[in-house]
Design brief:
The chain has 437 residues and is of the alpha/beta class. It is built from twelve helices and 20 strands. Strands 4, 13, 14, 15, 16, 17, 18, 19 and 20 form a nine-stranded mixed sheet that branches. The termini are far apart. Bound molecules: ligand LLP.
């Protein structure tokens, strides 16, 4: 646990004059205006991440479809949408968000293992680019809904390539014993019926092997398998347009020992995979669905020290943020770099501390045995890598209102989500009873 922090990207969050800043705005100022805990995003970091991912695929027709689940804030969706980004959604709620943010339906891919008929209907009505089918019964449901609407559903089959993404088991999705995708023989068996249906049109194939992939190799392998199946589908008469290589492009959280591959390596691996699979001649549009690589490193969770206590020879730093704002450490033992907002004096040294929140769970920690400088009540800390799967996985557990989200652009601060009030947290909790006859 006591691993040395690797060098983080300092272009968007860096110390200036002894104070940590988001672009040109010191975090002390952000804390004064918006309180703590709060999420702070750098707009330039998101723009930069999008540009790098887009550039990684520039030699191929492509669609970067942001995995909305990473952070569905409307302002972020609007920002990425205006830059030309598409969206990978997994629910009717995300569909509505993306449409509300003004993203054209033709840039929306609908993934997910359990879509309801209502969600399928909404997606067809909106005119999304493709609906990624993950099981035979889902194909039945989609066909039924398309029939009812007199439509032809654009189907992409999500293949489960049985490739190990070598990541945390909870975020690995490409192995046969995961719930995701279709094993190749099953996908193959669906082909004739899709091709024969007046309500289905096979427009693409997809795969996604997992998140925070340390190496592009598993993605290349998965793409090669999917591409080879694409060639097979084309031979069977399918007019495929799209090959979706999924997300999983990594970011640096601060404990990585090995090099984190840049987007260009992933772009290359995907192109190699298409060639290896023998699908280069199909001129398929390549879609990718990165979530964290677009927004993860653009966000910080800003928190204030409430208490410092020593117990059993350990130093506990109790802060006002918790697993309710960032569940990744509790759920995946994830490491997030912690930076004091006031630049520490190197002479003061560092000693291990557990950074814990106020929630009544032993798993409510943000960092364990982390070498941190001396801290006292009132000090501010910035937890890096909180732009993805921070706010989007937040909860009201322990009666905690959700934290605000602030977007910084140079010296401009924009509140893009207000802090919840206590009343917000119980909205909808009315008593109305019905009895069965
Ligand atoms: N596409 C599909 C089909 C996915 O299931 C996911 C993530 C993504 C794209 C985006 O993955 P990314 O590029 O962000 O790694 N809550 C976890 C991550 C779960 C992701 C589930 N699916 C975390 O905090 O690490």
């Amino acid at each position: 646990m006591n691993r040395p922090a690797q060098r983080l990207d300092e272009r968007f969050f860096a110390y200036r004059g002894g104070s940590l800043c988001a672009e040109a705005v010191p975090f002390d100022e952000l804390a004064r205006r918006f309180g703590t805990p709060s999420y702070v995003y750098s707009g330039a970091a998101m723009d930069d991440a999008y540009a790098a991912i887009d550039a990684a695929l520039e030699t191929t027709p492509h669609l970067v479809a942001y995995a909305v689940k990473a952070n569905g804030n409307l302002s972020i969706l609007r920002r990425l949408g205006r830059a030309g980004c598409g969206m990978d959604i997994v629910s009717g709620g995300e569909l509505a968000r993306v449409l509300a943010a003004g993203v054209p339906a033709a840039r929306i891919l609908f993934s997910g293992v359990g879509k309801t008929d209502t969600e399928l209907r909404a997606a067809l009505r909106a005119g999304v680019r493709s609906i990624h089918v993950e099981s035979a019964p889902e194909l039945d449901a989609l066909e039924g809904v398309a029939h009812e609407l007199g439509a032809r559903a654009p189907v992409a089959l999500r293949v489960n390539p049985n490739v190990d993404s070598e990541t945390h088991p909870y975020i690995a999705t490409g192995l046969h014993d995961n719930k995701f995708g279709l094993e190749l023989p099953i996908a193959r068996s669906l082909l004739p019926r899709i091709l024969a249906s007046p309500h289905l049109s096979l427009v693409g194939l997809g795969c996604h092997v997992g998140s925070q992939c340390r190496s592009p190799a598993p993605i290349e392998d998965a793409v090669a398998i999917t591409a080879s199946f694409a060639a097979e589908c084309a031979r069977a008469g399918a007019r495929l347009r799209l090959l979706d290589a999924g997300g999983g492009w990594p970011i640096r959280y601060g404990d990585e020992v090995e090099r984190i591959h840049p987007p260009a390596d992933f772009g290359q691996a995907i192109r190699r995979g298409v060639e290896r699979g023998g699908a280069a001649g199909l001129n398929l549009e390549i879609a990718v669905e990165p979530g964290r690589a677009l927004v993860g490193d653009a966000g910080v969770l800003l928190t204030r020290v409430l208490y410092v206590k020593e117990q059993a020879g350990k130093r506990f730093v109790v802060v006002d943020a918790a697993m309710t704002e960032l569940i990744r450490p509790a759920l995946y033992q994830a490491y997030h770099a912690v930076l004091p907002v006031t630049e520490p004096d190197p002479r003061a040294g560092r000693a291990p501390a557990d950074l814990v929140g106020p929630v009544c769970e032993t798993a409510d920690f943000l960092a364990l045995a982390r070498p941190l400088p001396p801290l006292r009540r009132g000090d501010l800390l910035a937890i890096r890598g909180a732009g993805a799967y921070g706010a989007s996985m937040a909860s009201n557990y322990n009666g905690r209102p959700r934290a605000p989200e602030v977007m910084v652009d140079a010296n401009l601060m924009q509140l893009i989500r207000a802090r919840e009030t206590i009343e917000d947290t119980w909205r909808g909790e009315m008593s109305s009873s019905v009895s069965i006859p």
